[in-house]
Design goal:
three-stranded antiparallel sheet, 2 domains, about 280 residues, alpha+beta, 9 helices
Length: about 280
Amino acid sequence: MFPVLTATRYVTPLREGGSLPAILEAEGGGYVVAKFRGAGQGARALIAELIVGGLARAAGLPVPAVVLVEIDESFGRSERDPEIQDILKGSRGVNVGLGYLSGAFNYDPLAVPDIDPDLAADIVWLDAYVTNIDRTARNPNMLVWEGGLWLIDHGAALYFHHNWDTLDDARIVSPFAPIRDHVLLPLAGDIAAADRRMSKRITPETIAAVTAALPDSLLMDSPAGMQPAFASAGEARAAYARYLTRRLEGREGFVKAIVDAQEALRSAPPIEQRYRR
């Protein structure tokens, strides 16, 4: 599900957000936008990138190719920036990348208003499902490339996994209140129809395939000074699969939250939308 590429050259950092991603050249001459396990958000942000990207692509949503990026000991030694050097030193081994969309530009909700309502509804559904807090008008995390919309940057999703001990069934199936701030909610079509579409595309079998492809090294990574959340990578995979399957089964709560937020938005006076520059 996630092809493995070896990084051959550090091209340039992308200095947006706190994770300091970068464009890398990989074997064969292709380019990827890499997220590093040695960045401040750590390996769990990379796991979120893999899970959400994998589910979204399985559901037919527009996400660039999701790949694993191997970084060896010699990579990036010529980089002069000490911050970049520190990140690369902490990122030896497996990292995560998205296919580089050359010429893409950031989605502007004011300049690109014509989005298919069904696509917008499907994206809103996905983000409520995976508790993605980072697709707002201020920070859309979407690109426009070759006339189409593309979803990027899912490291902030699945935030429950930063504290597994607090996870119970009520939290798993809880509504997702931040969906009211989703940048595409004003453009979304019928949410009930989106629920029917997406629940046919994302199934327990899809979830099993995505979680089975998660690398051991990322699952067993943990913040400095902390023990891994699970005794083995297999236990971690099973825990992610249980969460995602149970949330899918109990999706009525987050679907209703989307519908309620959509109705509240439509009944409210219009407000100016802003986004991050």
